Amino acid sequence: MTTFTPPPVLEKKNDPPVPPPPLSGSEVAESAAKRLSRPWATAAALIIAVLWTIPTFGLLVSSFRPEKLTKTTGWWTFFSNPTVTLDNYRAVLTTEGSSGLGKYVINSFIIVIPSVVIPLVLATLAAYAFAWVKFPGRNVLFIAVFALQIVPIQVTLLPLLKLYVKGDLVGFPAIWISHSIFALPLAIFLLHNFMREIPAELIEAARVDGAGHVKILTAVLLPLLKPAIAAFGIFQFLWVWNDLLVALVFAGGGSDVAPITKGLADLSGTRDSAWHLLSAGALVAIIVPVVVFLSLQRYFVRGLLAGGLKG
Amino acid sequence: MTTLEKLTSMAGALLLFGAVMGLILYIAGRFGERRAGKPVAFLFLLPTALLVAVGLVYPALRTIYQSFFDAGGTSFVGLDNFATIFTSSDELTVLRNTVLWVVVTPFIATAVGLLYAILVDGARMEAFAKALIFLPMAISFVGASIIWKFIYAYRPDQANVKQIGVLNQIVVWLGGTPVNWLVGSPLNTLLLIVILIWIQAGFAMTILSAAIKAIPGDIVEAARLDGVTTLGMFRFVTLPSIRPAVVVVLTTIGIATLKVFDIVRTVTGGSFNTSVVAYEFYSQTFSSSNQGLGSALAVLLFVLVIPIVAYNIRQMRATEAR
């Protein structure tokens, strides 16, 4: 009882960086192997990180180089001949006619705001109904909505386009409605998962206090749902901002309602060798989602995990 | 339209939407009692049900119907469109490419994501290291395509002509002749696949990294005490523990890959034998005005996605049941 040696497991857990002094042979070998493999692991991680960063970095550098240099030399020569200009951005944003990307950026904002708000509100209501309102056929309906995620957008485009034309619905409204429709199954599914995690006692307590469904949803659940709503909002924002297919089909040929992705795709098609414009244009298109993404990354990752792992 | 007009129409649309939602909430609020389930559910689900019925269910059925008709959509041709997909040499190339995309992309993107997640797990600046790989996810497929088109850029091999694409420059530095990468099939398809892998690896890494962190510490500790090597640890502890997450990642990327369209359109426009089903659908329907064949391709896409999703649902069920 006088000498007390703590069990090795505990010691390891409490104090991982300092190995216990008396090491057995195999443990010595293991920690040696670990020390050896660490540099390799770091090197491999570095290689991947560089491979993943260089493409965007090269474009970033190019976008600030003068036209002539961009067309005749590689961007890596920038480091031996660092000439910087904003001409590319000026050209790509202000050029008159359809090639100026400025108005496409505005279109993208006009498209993206209702396309995020509408499905979020609708999905919140629907998810609440599926999660906390008892009604006959609830499970069957929920599975049906879930299964609709299978439908590829491609399948819906042509009939939907014909419906819009018949209903004289063109331009922005057609795009807003389409994006909202396509977002609903996943949005309902994700929000439903979050809502089910809220303890039933909380809702029961509100009910006892005499709150109806609307009161429970707006006063009790909504504040708790903020992270989930943020997560899906970012999801949908990135999706709509980065979409090309829906824009191509429903924005028609005109540059009046087309988003930045279409402007950029057109630029890429018609000015294939104008790398000074393409690189600046691409960065104009990239900057908004990247800023949104980086500033709200935490929520976004949480949303990914809720959708990907919970099931 | 001026910017002001656009903003006005957006504000108008949002106001209209807000008014409808307000009305729904107001009516639903009148049912205060506990037994108000049915009317409230009806009101809450009505807008969604309408949109989904008109925008997903009807179009899907309509497209399936349309796939049995000819190019103009007027005369019934039975399974001819599907026969075309599986016999015409152009369409067979499209199928071959699609198979290549779906077989290669999910596995490599997942492998890279997993490797990176393991390598940076617990490292210093882990969050920053992860952001580097994760960032391409925020970039549109069109933007990513332009980024990579630049890497693949080719200048004819003449005196005084310098390469501006990194890949060809590396070839030149190594003493080779520059290659017009995007012209030769099937190499060009693989180079397009690289773009999607670049985008999706971050997604794989995020999910798998979370799964790795969720492995109970005592399992790892027990294995370590048993003297399991690093590789053994991966093989017998890490991999089995994160299997469900790996399945989710593989299937999610697989489905996204089936629908890939923007990359092919932006980089090659489907020429040089690089088309895939999702792009071919678009070009047949909207450029070649062959509605029948376009619809059949969309249906094929649908059919290809079903088993992947079904498998995914079964996996989820199995995970939940444990």
TrEMBL record, chain A:
Task: Report the locations given in the UniProt record.
Answer: Cell membrane
Disordered: where is this region? 1-26
Which PROSITE patterns does this chain map to? ABC_TM1
Is the keyword Transport assigned to this protein?
yes
UniProt topology in membrane: Multi-pass membrane protein
Q: InterPro entries annotated for this entry?
A: MetI-like (IPR000515), MetI-like_sf (IPR035906)
Q: What is its main location?
A: membrane
Q: Where is the ABC transmembrane type-1 domain?
A: 105-296
* Any coiled-coil regions, as ranges: none
Q: Does the keyword Zinc apply?
A: no
Can you tell me which family this protein belongs to?
Belongs to the binding-protein-dependent transport system permease family.
Its name, as the record gives it, is: Carbohydrate ABC transporter permease
Q: Which source organism does the UniProt entry give?
A: Rhodococcus antarcticus
From TrEMBL, chain B:
* NADP found in the keyword field: no
Q: Which Gene3D superfamilies match?
A: MetI-like (1.10.3720.10)
KW Cell membrane (keyword) present? yes
Please provide the record's keywords in A-Z order: Cell membrane, Membrane, Transmembrane, Transmembrane helix, Transport
Residue intervals passing through the bilayer = 6-28, 40-61, 99-119, 131-152, 164-183, 190-212, 294-313
A Pfam family cross-referenced in the UniProt record is BPD_transp_1
Q: How does the protein's chain sit in the membrane according to the entry? A: Multi-pass membrane protein
- Specify the ABC transmembrane type-1 domain's residue ranges: 95-312
Matching entries from InterPro entries are given as:
MetI-like, MetI-like_sf, UgpAE/MalFG_permease
| Localization of this protein | Cell membrane
Q: Which family does it belong to?
A: Belongs to the binding-protein-dependent transport system permease family.
Q: Which PANTHER family match?
A: BLL4140 PROTEIN (PTHR43227), DIACETYLCHITOBIOSE UPTAKE SYSTEM PERMEASE PROTEIN DASB (PTHR43227:SF8)
What is the name listed in the Swiss-Prot or TrEMBL entry for this protein? Sugar ABC transporter permease
